[in-house]
User: Which sequence fits this backbone?
Protein backbone atom coordinates (compact mmCIF):
# COMPACT_ATOMS: atom_id res chain seq x y z
CA UNK A 1 0.00 0.00 0.00
CA UNK A 2 1.22 3.51 -0.83
CA UNK A 3 2.41 5.27 2.34
CA UNK A 4 0.26 7.93 4.00
CA UNK A 5 0.01 9.86 7.24
CA UNK A 6 -2.67 8.67 9.63
CA UNK A 7 -4.68 10.60 12.16
CA UNK A 8 -7.52 9.55 14.44
CA UNK A 9 -9.42 12.65 15.63
CA UNK A 10 -11.47 12.43 18.83
CA UNK A 11 -14.32 14.79 17.90
CA UNK A 12 -16.38 15.92 14.91
CA UNK A 13 -14.98 19.45 15.31
CA UNK A 14 -11.42 18.16 15.20
CA UNK A 15 -12.19 15.98 12.14
CA UNK A 16 -13.77 18.75 10.08
CA UNK A 17 -10.96 21.10 11.13
CA UNK A 18 -8.37 18.66 9.76
CA UNK A 19 -10.40 18.22 6.57
CA UNK A 20 -10.73 21.94 5.94
CA UNK A 21 -6.99 22.37 6.46
CA UNK A 22 -5.87 19.43 4.33
CA UNK A 23 -8.52 19.56 1.61
CA UNK A 24 -8.13 17.01 -1.13
CA UNK A 25 -5.04 15.47 0.44
CA UNK A 26 -7.26 13.82 3.05
CA UNK A 27 -9.30 10.63 2.79
CA UNK A 28 -11.90 9.50 5.30
CA UNK A 29 -11.95 6.09 6.92
CA UNK A 30 -15.05 4.84 8.74
CA UNK A 31 -15.08 1.09 9.36
CA UNK A 32 -12.61 0.52 6.54
CA UNK A 33 -14.37 -2.31 4.73
CA UNK A 34 -14.54 -0.24 1.54
CA UNK A 35 -11.90 2.40 2.30
CA UNK A 36 -8.99 0.03 3.02
CA UNK A 37 -9.70 -1.86 -0.22
CA UNK A 38 -9.65 1.43 -2.16
CA UNK A 39 -6.36 2.37 -0.51
CA UNK A 40 -4.84 -0.99 -1.35
CA UNK A 41 -5.99 -0.92 -4.96
CA UNK A 42 -4.70 2.63 -5.36
CA UNK A 43 -8.17 3.88 -6.36
CA UNK A 44 -7.42 6.67 -3.92
CA UNK A 45 -3.92 7.96 -3.17
CA UNK A 46 -4.29 10.30 -0.22
CA UNK A 47 -1.47 11.92 1.70
CA UNK A 48 -3.49 11.69 4.89
CA UNK A 49 -6.01 9.12 6.14
CA UNK A 50 -8.43 10.53 8.69
CA UNK A 51 -9.79 7.61 10.74
CA UNK A 52 -13.16 8.69 12.16
CA UNK A 53 -13.36 5.53 14.30
CA UNK A 54 -12.37 7.26 17.52
CA UNK A 55 -15.17 9.86 17.54
CA UNK A 56 -17.37 8.86 20.48
CA UNK A 57 -20.20 11.31 19.61
CA UNK A 58 -20.72 9.57 16.25
CA UNK A 59 -21.29 6.14 17.81
CA UNK A 60 -24.36 4.15 18.67
CA UNK A 61 -28.10 4.04 18.12
CA UNK A 62 -30.50 6.26 20.06
CA UNK A 63 -34.31 6.18 20.21
CA UNK A 64 -35.58 9.74 20.47
CA UNK A 65 -39.12 9.50 19.15
CA UNK A 66 -37.44 8.46 15.93
CA UNK A 67 -34.18 6.62 15.56
CA UNK A 68 -30.84 8.39 15.58
CA UNK A 69 -28.11 6.34 13.97
CA UNK A 70 -24.61 7.58 14.74
CA UNK A 71 -22.59 7.56 11.53
CA UNK A 72 -20.19 5.05 13.12
CA UNK A 73 -22.92 2.60 14.16
CA UNK A 74 -22.13 -0.72 12.53
CA UNK A 75 -24.43 -2.33 9.99
CA UNK A 76 -24.45 -5.29 12.38
CA UNK A 77 -25.80 -3.14 15.22
CA UNK A 78 -28.83 -2.24 13.05
CA UNK A 79 -29.29 -5.94 12.34
CA UNK A 80 -29.12 -7.04 16.00
CA UNK A 81 -30.49 -4.15 18.07
CA UNK A 82 -33.75 -5.22 19.76
CA UNK A 83 -35.29 -1.74 19.52
CA UNK A 84 -34.51 -1.46 15.79
CA UNK A 85 -35.84 -4.97 15.14
CA UNK A 86 -39.10 -4.12 16.92
CA UNK A 87 -39.80 -0.62 15.60
CA UNK A 88 -37.75 -0.45 12.36
CA UNK A 89 -37.83 -4.03 11.08
CA UNK A 90 -37.23 -2.91 7.48
CA UNK A 91 -33.83 -1.47 8.48
CA UNK A 92 -32.89 -4.59 10.45
CA UNK A 93 -33.97 -6.83 7.59
CA UNK A 94 -31.93 -4.88 5.03
CA UNK A 95 -28.89 -4.71 7.34
CA UNK A 96 -28.96 -8.47 7.86
CA UNK A 97 -28.57 -8.97 4.09
CA UNK A 98 -25.47 -6.83 3.60
CA UNK A 99 -22.34 -8.72 2.40
CA UNK A 100 -21.10 -11.07 5.16
CA UNK A 101 -20.87 -10.92 8.94
CA UNK A 102 -17.22 -9.76 8.88
CA UNK A 103 -18.15 -6.77 6.76
CA UNK A 104 -21.30 -6.05 8.80
CA UNK A 105 -19.24 -6.07 12.03
CA UNK A 106 -17.02 -3.21 10.88
CA UNK A 107 -18.88 -1.40 8.07
CA UNK A 108 -20.63 1.71 9.35
CA UNK A 109 -24.07 3.02 8.44
CA UNK A 110 -22.60 6.49 7.83
CA UNK A 111 -19.97 4.96 5.58
CA UNK A 112 -22.56 3.01 3.60
CA UNK A 113 -24.54 6.24 3.11
CA UNK A 114 -21.58 8.48 2.26
CA UNK A 115 -19.93 5.97 -0.10
CA UNK A 116 -22.89 6.32 -2.46
CA UNK A 117 -22.54 2.86 -3.97
CA UNK A 118 -25.78 2.25 -5.87
CA UNK A 119 -25.93 -1.52 -5.24
CA UNK A 120 -25.85 -1.72 -1.45
CA UNK A 121 -28.89 -2.56 0.64
CA UNK A 122 -28.67 0.02 3.42
CA UNK A 123 -29.25 3.20 1.35
CA UNK A 124 -32.26 1.56 -0.34
CA UNK A 125 -33.91 0.76 3.01
CA UNK A 126 -32.98 4.15 4.52
CA UNK A 127 -34.48 5.91 1.51
CA UNK A 128 -37.70 3.89 1.83
CA UNK A 129 -37.73 4.83 5.53
CA UNK A 130 -37.55 8.59 4.85
CA UNK A 131 -34.15 9.06 6.51
CA UNK A 132 -32.48 12.43 6.97
CA UNK A 133 -28.69 12.69 6.68
CA UNK A 134 -26.86 15.00 9.10
CA UNK A 135 -23.76 16.61 7.69
CA UNK A 136 -21.04 18.40 9.66
CA UNK A 137 -18.55 20.89 8.25
CA UNK A 138 -16.36 23.71 9.58
CA UNK A 139 -19.15 26.21 8.98
CA UNK A 140 -21.67 24.15 10.95
CA UNK A 141 -24.23 21.44 10.45
CA UNK A 142 -26.89 20.86 7.84
CA UNK A 143 -29.43 18.14 7.25
CA UNK A 144 -30.50 16.72 3.90
CA UNK A 145 -33.34 14.28 3.18
CA UNK A 146 -31.72 11.14 1.84
CA UNK A 147 -33.71 11.39 -1.44
CA UNK A 148 -31.74 14.57 -2.13
CA UNK A 149 -28.40 13.31 -0.80
CA UNK A 150 -27.26 11.29 -3.81
CA UNK A 151 -25.98 13.03 -6.94
CA UNK A 152 -24.87 9.99 -8.92
CA UNK A 153 -23.03 6.71 -8.52
CA UNK A 154 -20.50 7.20 -5.69
CA UNK A 155 -21.45 10.88 -5.69
CA UNK A 156 -23.27 12.79 -2.99
CA UNK A 157 -24.03 16.40 -2.11
CA UNK A 158 -21.20 16.35 0.46
CA UNK A 159 -18.94 19.35 -0.08
CA UNK A 160 -15.19 19.29 0.40
CA UNK A 161 -14.50 19.13 4.14
CA UNK A 162 -17.92 17.80 5.13
CA UNK A 163 -18.67 14.49 6.81
CA UNK A 164 -21.82 12.51 7.51
CA UNK A 165 -22.22 12.67 11.30
CA UNK A 166 -25.46 10.76 11.70
CA UNK A 167 -28.77 9.70 10.22
CA UNK A 168 -32.26 10.18 11.62
CA UNK A 169 -35.14 7.91 10.72
CA UNK A 170 -38.75 8.75 11.62
CA UNK A 171 -40.62 6.03 13.49
CA UNK A 172 -43.07 4.25 11.20
CA UNK A 173 -46.71 4.85 12.20
CA UNK A 174 -48.79 1.96 13.63
CA UNK A 175 -50.02 -0.63 11.12
CA UNK A 176 -46.92 -0.19 8.97
CA UNK A 177 -45.08 -3.12 7.43
CA UNK A 178 -41.77 -3.15 5.63
CA UNK A 179 -39.79 -5.64 3.59
CA UNK A 180 -36.39 -5.66 1.90
CA UNK A 181 -35.57 -8.23 -0.74
CA UNK A 182 -32.45 -8.64 -2.84
CA UNK A 183 -31.42 -10.94 -5.62
CA UNK A 184 -27.85 -12.04 -6.18
CA UNK A 185 -26.21 -14.41 -8.62
CA UNK A 186 -23.11 -16.46 -8.00
CA UNK A 187 -21.83 -16.25 -4.46
CA UNK A 188 -24.55 -15.24 -1.98
CA UNK A 189 -22.42 -12.34 -0.89
CA UNK A 190 -21.93 -10.97 -4.38
CA UNK A 191 -23.35 -7.49 -4.83
CA UNK A 192 -27.03 -7.71 -5.72
CA UNK A 193 -28.37 -7.77 -9.26
CA UNK A 194 -31.05 -5.59 -7.72
CA UNK A 195 -32.78 -4.97 -4.40
CA UNK A 196 -36.05 -3.41 -3.31
CA UNK A 197 -37.52 -2.00 -0.11
CA UNK A 198 -41.23 -1.46 0.48
CA UNK A 199 -42.83 0.36 3.41
CA UNK A 200 -46.63 0.33 3.56
CA UNK A 201 -49.13 1.71 6.10
CA UNK A 202 -52.74 0.49 6.18
CA UNK A 203 -55.97 1.68 7.75
CA UNK A 204 -56.74 -1.34 9.95
CA UNK A 205 -60.54 -1.39 9.66
CA UNK A 206 -60.78 -1.05 5.87
CA UNK A 207 -57.39 -2.53 4.98
CA UNK A 208 -56.79 0.37 2.58
CA UNK A 209 -53.26 1.74 2.17
CA UNK A 210 -52.68 5.17 3.64
CA UNK A 211 -49.03 5.34 2.57
CA UNK A 212 -46.82 3.26 0.32
CA UNK A 213 -43.19 3.75 -0.57
CA UNK A 214 -41.03 1.62 -2.84
CA UNK A 215 -37.32 2.16 -3.41
CA UNK A 216 -35.12 0.14 -5.76
CA UNK A 217 -31.35 -0.38 -5.44
CA UNK A 218 -28.86 -1.29 -8.18
CA UNK A 219 -31.64 0.12 -10.34
CA UNK A 220 -30.01 3.37 -11.42
CA UNK A 221 -27.24 5.81 -10.49
CA UNK A 222 -28.89 6.51 -7.11
CA UNK A 223 -31.60 4.72 -5.07
CA UNK A 224 -34.70 4.92 -7.28
CA UNK A 225 -37.91 6.02 -5.53
CA UNK A 226 -40.80 4.48 -7.49
CA UNK A 227 -43.58 7.03 -7.88
CA UNK A 228 -45.79 4.15 -9.07
CA UNK A 229 -46.26 3.17 -5.41
CA UNK A 230 -48.60 6.17 -5.05
CA UNK A 231 -51.26 4.21 -6.97
CA UNK A 232 -51.72 2.00 -3.90
CA UNK A 233 -52.76 4.85 -1.60
CA UNK A 234 -56.48 4.99 -0.86
CA UNK A 235 -57.19 1.55 -2.24
CA UNK A 236 -57.21 -1.91 -0.79
CA UNK A 237 -54.22 -3.27 -2.63
CA UNK A 238 -55.20 -6.40 -4.50
CA UNK A 239 -52.57 -8.78 -5.88
CA UNK A 240 -53.47 -7.49 -9.37
CA UNK A 241 -52.95 -3.88 -8.32
CA UNK A 242 -49.62 -4.77 -6.69
CA UNK A 243 -48.52 -6.50 -9.90
CA UNK A 244 -49.42 -3.39 -11.94
CA UNK A 245 -47.49 -1.15 -9.55
CA UNK A 246 -44.47 -3.48 -9.67
CA UNK A 247 -44.49 -3.46 -13.48
CA UNK A 248 -44.68 0.34 -13.52
CA UNK A 249 -41.92 0.62 -10.89
CA UNK A 250 -39.59 -1.57 -12.98
CA UNK A 251 -40.17 0.83 -15.91
CA UNK A 252 -39.08 3.75 -13.70
CA UNK A 253 -35.77 2.02 -13.00
CA UNK A 254 -32.68 2.86 -15.03
CA UNK A 255 -30.36 -0.12 -14.53
CA UNK A 256 -27.05 -0.53 -16.37
CA UNK A 257 -25.80 -3.63 -18.10
CA UNK A 258 -22.89 -5.15 -16.19
CA UNK A 259 -21.55 -8.54 -15.13
CA UNK A 260 -24.73 -9.09 -13.12
CA UNK A 261 -26.92 -8.96 -16.18
CA UNK A 262 -28.31 -6.88 -19.04
CA UNK A 263 -30.79 -4.06 -18.53
CA UNK A 264 -33.91 -6.03 -19.56
CA UNK A 265 -32.99 -8.81 -17.15
CA UNK A 266 -32.54 -6.43 -14.22
CA UNK A 267 -35.88 -4.79 -14.98
CA UNK A 268 -37.55 -8.18 -14.95
CA UNK A 269 -35.89 -9.02 -11.63
CA UNK A 270 -36.89 -5.62 -10.23
CA UNK A 271 -40.54 -6.18 -11.16
CA UNK A 272 -40.56 -9.43 -9.22
CA UNK A 273 -38.64 -8.01 -6.24
CA UNK A 274 -41.02 -5.03 -5.96
CA UNK A 275 -44.06 -7.29 -6.22
CA UNK A 276 -42.74 -9.58 -3.49
CA UNK A 277 -41.56 -6.73 -1.24
CA UNK A 278 -44.94 -4.99 -1.49
CA UNK A 279 -46.87 -8.21 -0.88
CA UNK A 280 -44.75 -9.04 2.14
CA UNK A 281 -44.87 -5.48 3.53
CA UNK A 282 -48.68 -5.41 3.21
CA UNK A 283 -49.01 -8.73 4.99
CA UNK A 284 -46.85 -7.44 7.82
CA UNK A 285 -48.80 -4.15 7.99
CA UNK A 286 -52.08 -6.06 8.33
CA UNK A 287 -50.94 -8.33 11.14
CA UNK B 1 3.13 5.08 14.30
CA UNK B 2 2.79 3.22 17.58
CA UNK B 3 0.06 0.60 18.02
CA UNK B 4 -0.77 -1.11 21.30
CA UNK B 5 -2.78 -4.29 21.09
CA UNK B 6 -3.15 -7.76 22.50
CA UNK B 7 -2.56 -10.67 20.16
CA UNK B 8 -3.37 -14.16 21.44
CA UNK B 9 -3.11 -12.96 25.02
CA UNK B 10 0.22 -11.19 24.59
CA UNK B 11 0.30 -7.41 25.05
CA UNK B 12 2.33 -5.73 22.34
CA UNK B 13 3.50 -2.25 21.51
CA UNK B 14 4.60 -2.01 17.89
CA UNK B 15 5.95 0.72 15.68
CA UNK B 16 4.46 0.23 12.21
CA UNK B 17 3.90 2.32 9.07
CA UNK B 18 0.28 3.66 9.03
CA UNK B 19 -0.44 1.76 5.80
CA UNK B 20 0.05 -1.58 7.60
CA UNK B 21 -3.08 -3.71 7.65
CA UNK B 22 -3.90 -5.99 10.56
CA UNK B 23 -3.15 -8.89 8.19
CA UNK B 24 0.32 -7.47 7.36
CA UNK B 25 0.96 -6.94 11.05
CA UNK B 26 0.03 -10.53 11.95
CA UNK B 27 1.82 -12.26 9.10
CA UNK B 28 4.82 -10.09 8.29
CA UNK B 29 5.55 -8.49 11.62
CA UNK B 30 4.55 -11.23 14.08
CA UNK B 31 5.15 -14.25 11.85
CA UNK B 32 1.66 -15.63 12.51
CA UNK B 33 1.14 -17.31 9.15
CA UNK B 34 -2.02 -19.20 10.14
CA UNK B 35 -4.03 -16.18 9.02
CA UNK B 36 -4.25 -16.47 5.23
CA UNK B 37 -4.11 -13.85 2.56
CA UNK B 38 -6.22 -14.12 -0.54
CA UNK B 39 -8.80 -11.70 -1.96
CA UNK B 40 -7.72 -8.50 -0.19
CA UNK B 41 -11.22 -7.14 -0.39
CA UNK B 42 -13.17 -8.53 2.57
CA UNK B 43 -14.98 -11.08 0.43
CA UNK B 44 -13.33 -14.49 0.87
CA UNK B 45 -12.75 -14.68 4.63
CA UNK B 46 -9.36 -16.46 4.47
CA UNK B 47 -7.94 -13.68 6.67
CA UNK B 48 -10.70 -13.89 9.32
CA UNK B 49 -9.54 -13.19 12.87
CA UNK B 50 -11.45 -12.15 15.98
CA UNK B 51 -11.03 -8.56 17.17
CA UNK B 52 -12.63 -7.99 20.56
CA UNK B 53 -14.53 -11.22 19.95
CA UNK B 54 -15.96 -10.19 16.59
CA UNK B 55 -15.10 -11.83 13.29
CA UNK B 56 -13.35 -9.34 11.00
CA UNK B 57 -11.38 -9.41 7.75
CA UNK B 58 -7.85 -8.58 8.85
CA UNK B 59 -7.03 -7.49 5.27
CA UNK B 60 -9.54 -4.65 5.47
CA UNK B 61 -8.44 -3.01 8.71
CA UNK B 62 -5.54 -0.69 9.26
CA UNK B 63 -3.28 -1.29 12.23
CA UNK B 64 -4.45 2.02 13.72
CA UNK B 65 -8.01 0.73 13.82
CA UNK B 66 -7.05 -2.10 16.15
CA UNK B 67 -5.14 0.07 18.62
CA UNK B 68 -6.31 -1.18 22.02
CA UNK B 69 -8.03 -4.26 20.58
CA UNK B 70 -7.77 -7.86 21.70
CA UNK B 71 -7.02 -10.01 18.65
CA UNK B 72 -7.32 -13.78 18.44
CA UNK B 73 -5.79 -15.77 15.56
CA UNK B 74 -5.81 -19.49 14.86
CA UNK B 75 -2.47 -19.79 16.70
CA UNK B 76 -4.08 -18.35 19.83
CA UNK B 77 -7.09 -20.62 19.60
CA UNK B 78 -4.92 -23.74 19.41
CA UNK B 79 -4.09 -25.09 22.88
CA UNK B 80 -0.50 -25.98 23.82
CA UNK B 81 -1.35 -29.64 23.40
CA UNK B 82 -3.92 -31.15 21.07
CA UNK B 83 -6.59 -29.17 19.27
CA UNK B 84 -9.42 -26.84 20.18
CA UNK B 85 -12.77 -28.70 20.04
CA UNK B 86 -13.81 -26.76 16.91
CA UNK B 87 -10.53 -27.74 15.23
CA UNK B 88 -11.08 -31.35 16.31
CA UNK B 89 -14.63 -31.26 14.91
CA UNK B 90 -13.24 -30.12 11.53
CA UNK B 91 -10.74 -33.01 11.56
CA UNK B 92 -13.33 -35.59 12.60
CA UNK B 93 -15.91 -34.46 10.02
CA UNK B 94 -13.68 -33.83 6.99
CA UNK B 95 -14.37 -30.09 7.24
CA UNK B 96 -11.36 -29.29 5.06
CA UNK B 97 -9.60 -30.34 1.91
CA UNK B 98 -6.81 -27.97 0.86
CA UNK B 99 -7.04 -26.21 4.21
CA UNK B 100 -6.48 -22.67 2.98
CA UNK B 101 -9.84 -21.37 4.21
CA UNK B 102 -9.77 -23.46 7.38
CA UNK B 103 -8.22 -21.04 9.92
CA UNK B 104 -10.77 -18.42 8.88
CA UNK B 105 -13.62 -20.92 8.93
CA UNK B 106 -12.70 -22.11 12.43
CA UNK B 107 -12.48 -18.57 13.81
CA UNK B 108 -15.79 -17.70 12.13
CA UNK B 109 -17.33 -20.80 13.74
CA UNK B 110 -15.94 -19.67 17.11
CA UNK B 111 -17.52 -16.23 16.66
CA UNK B 112 -20.83 -17.88 15.77
CA UNK B 113 -20.82 -20.20 18.79
CA UNK B 114 -19.77 -17.38 21.14
CA UNK B 115 -22.72 -15.29 19.89
CA UNK B 116 -25.21 -18.10 19.59
CA UNK B 117 -24.37 -21.33 21.45
CA UNK B 118 -27.09 -23.37 19.76
CA UNK B 119 -27.57 -22.13 16.21
CA UNK B 120 -30.01 -23.86 13.89
CA UNK B 121 -28.79 -25.45 10.67
CA UNK B 122 -30.19 -22.43 8.76
CA UNK B 123 -28.33 -20.02 11.06
CA UNK B 124 -25.07 -21.94 10.60
CA UNK B 125 -25.47 -21.89 6.81
CA UNK B 126 -26.16 -18.15 6.75
CA UNK B 127 -23.27 -17.25 9.05
CA UNK B 128 -20.65 -19.64 7.64
CA UNK B 129 -21.69 -18.98 4.03
CA UNK B 130 -19.98 -15.60 4.36
CA UNK B 131 -16.56 -17.32 4.15
CA UNK B 132 -15.64 -18.96 0.88
CA UNK B 133 -14.43 -22.54 0.51
CA UNK B 134 -13.73 -23.77 -3.01
CA UNK B 135 -13.01 -27.42 -2.13
CA UNK B 136 -15.55 -28.92 0.21
CA UNK B 137 -18.87 -27.73 -1.15
CA UNK B 138 -19.49 -26.76 2.49
CA UNK B 139 -21.09 -30.09 3.43
CA UNK B 140 -18.11 -31.10 5.57
CA UNK B 141 -17.86 -27.63 7.10
CA UNK B 142 -21.54 -27.68 8.00
CA UNK B 143 -21.15 -31.14 9.55
CA UNK B 144 -18.12 -29.95 11.50
CA UNK B 145 -19.86 -26.90 12.92
CA UNK B 146 -22.94 -28.94 13.80
CA UNK B 147 -20.67 -31.42 15.60
CA UNK B 148 -18.97 -28.55 17.45
CA UNK B 149 -22.40 -27.25 18.51
CA UNK B 150 -23.29 -30.70 19.91
CA UNK B 151 -19.98 -30.86 21.79
CA UNK B 152 -20.40 -27.28 23.00
CA UNK B 153 -21.46 -28.34 26.51
CA UNK B 154 -18.21 -30.20 27.09
CA UNK B 155 -15.85 -27.33 26.31
CA UNK B 156 -17.62 -24.06 27.01
Assistant:
Amino acid sequence: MRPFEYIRPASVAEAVGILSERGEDAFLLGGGSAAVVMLRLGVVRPELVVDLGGIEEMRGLRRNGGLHIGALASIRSLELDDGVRAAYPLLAEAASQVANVRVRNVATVGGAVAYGEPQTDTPTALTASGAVVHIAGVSGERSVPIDEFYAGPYETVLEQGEIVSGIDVPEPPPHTGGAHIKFTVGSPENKPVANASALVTVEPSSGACTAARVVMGAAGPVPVVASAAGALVGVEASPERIAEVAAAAAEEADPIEDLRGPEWYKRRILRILVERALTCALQRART
Amino acid sequence: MNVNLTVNGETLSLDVPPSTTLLDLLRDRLGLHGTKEYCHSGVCGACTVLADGKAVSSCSMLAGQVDGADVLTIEGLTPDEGLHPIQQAFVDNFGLQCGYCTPGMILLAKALLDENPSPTREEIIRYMGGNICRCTGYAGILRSVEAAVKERGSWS
In short: The mean pLDDT of chain B is 96. Residues 139-155 of chain B form the longest helix (17 residues). Chain B touches chain A at residues 1, 17-19, 21, 40-43, 45, 48, 54-57, 59-62, 64-65, 67, 108, 111, 127, 129-132 (CB under 8 Å).
